[in-house]
Amino acid sequence: MLVNIARRLAAMLAVMFIVATMVFFLTRLAPGDPASLMLGDQATAADVAQLRKTFGLDQPLIVQYVLWLKEVASGNLGQSIFLQRPVLQAIGERAEPTFFLALFSILIAAVIGIPAGIASAVWRGRHADQVASGLAMLAASIPSFWLGLLFMQFFAVRLGWFPVAGYGDPGAGLVQRLYHLVLPATVLGIVNSALITRFTRASMLDVLSEDYVRTARAKGLPEHRIILRHALGNTLVPIITVVGLTAALLIGGAIITETVFGLPGIGNLVVSAVLRRDYPVIQGALIVIAGIYVIINFAIDVIYTLVDPRVKT
Amino acid sequence: MDFTALRLFLKRLFKRKLVLFAAIVLALVVILAIAAPWVAPFSPTGMKVSQRLRPPSMVNWFGTDEFGRDILSRVIYGGRASLGIGMAVVLASMIAGTTLGLLAGYFRALDNIIMRIVDAMMSLPDILLAIFLVAVLGASAGNVVLALTIVYTPRVTRVVRGSTLVVRELPFVEAAHVLGVSTWRILSVHILLNVASPILVQATFIFAYAVLAEAGLSFLGTGVPPEIPTWGTMIATGQQYADQAVWLVLFPGLAIVFSALSLQLVGDGLRDMLDPKLRKAL
What we know:
heterodimer, A: 313 residues, mainly alpha, MetI-like fold, 15 helices, 76% helix, B: 282 residues
């Protein structure tokens, strides 16, 4: 078991190393010199040269790469060009709305997706299945920003039930802040419920054809008991996996929704960094977001190993 | 070409009425986009400031935008860019992903390297990776295609590799080896033909995702330049008028939903038909 976990850990580090390498070299493909970008149009050539030296930009690319990797490995993601603070701090300041948004969205997605998936597996091929599967596919075809704009128009502008945008005034209480997340989280929850519905349906169908389900039926157990106890219990692990991975992807994938609703989250930080070519922030955010995904993935693998005796070998 | 086989294929595919309906919608959208200059009632760029922000009417079925341009015509023309970009992404990512997947599935030595890179790329949310790539490459229609191709290639690679791992162990591949068929031919003919169905299914889904992702990028201002009408840029520029003229946002969005939904339904139909495991169970 420990060998298995160690192997997973090595794979995780390899993935992070590749992400970091990719991010570094791709960023260097971008047009424009970071130093002259930082100093603006008014800077003299001497100033630019001085700054290039301070940041080590006059070194050969490979040396810069090694130095950068060392910094990243020790947890230093560099300085933002525009925000005048370390990248990690900038990300930390924006983490709260993104975290709660991802959390609420995934809860809403699970509350819609898991029952819909169970219903469509249990009544496979019948009307309930067609309706649930059809709605799931519809949800997966809706652009989140479009649904967001329509919801905003209807529920916030017309009906006035929810705030139109933003995350409350500075100093607003937690309840007030969370109230601003109701609409965006609903939108993201609906859009992301599709994957969970499909996945729950597929795992449930797998389990329902197992021998022990047939045995339970032969024993004369009531159908709801078979489905809720025997079948659902055995689909929980794969369902939790897909919920966990979706949640991890939502942390970076909520970018568009954050932009629509003007939420000051990580996604918003990335978009403004892209528009201002603030490369250290883009690089840092990508590494942090990939890191969260990889860690959640790793945690799920470890849980699998602990829970499922078949994976132990 | 063997038409009996094609007819049988279509008959089985369209056994589900919904799949047939989706295929018709999709065909209609594609034909409208191709025939845009002949079917669009107005010029997509013709401004009539006196007619600005008119609600849907008999003359302008989908209303007019902030410059008095006809939205129906712009949605029809927008399909050219949106579907064109989607199609290009599908073709390019199929070619790249299939090649990488075949190599990874067949050659053990390459498997580890290719799949670790695939894992790394899939650890980033699609849209985030796309934004980053477009930021690095520069915003243009061509670069959006390139960026989305890089984003979706790993998915195809994963699927093709998985199928290749299964097919390469089958006796007919061994037989081909024994008969002295070259490795290149085994890969490009014997194995490729046997992993074609999952590739085809993936293609329809990636088409849908690419249309959605293009719209998302354009909406954020990190995609196609706003002067080119795509469904995404129309929603992006329309959003500031959304409270007085919601049709600016509504109709291009519906075009995206209908296209993506029919693509996914067709993909689902294909999968049901091509997956032998499912077929037996039905």
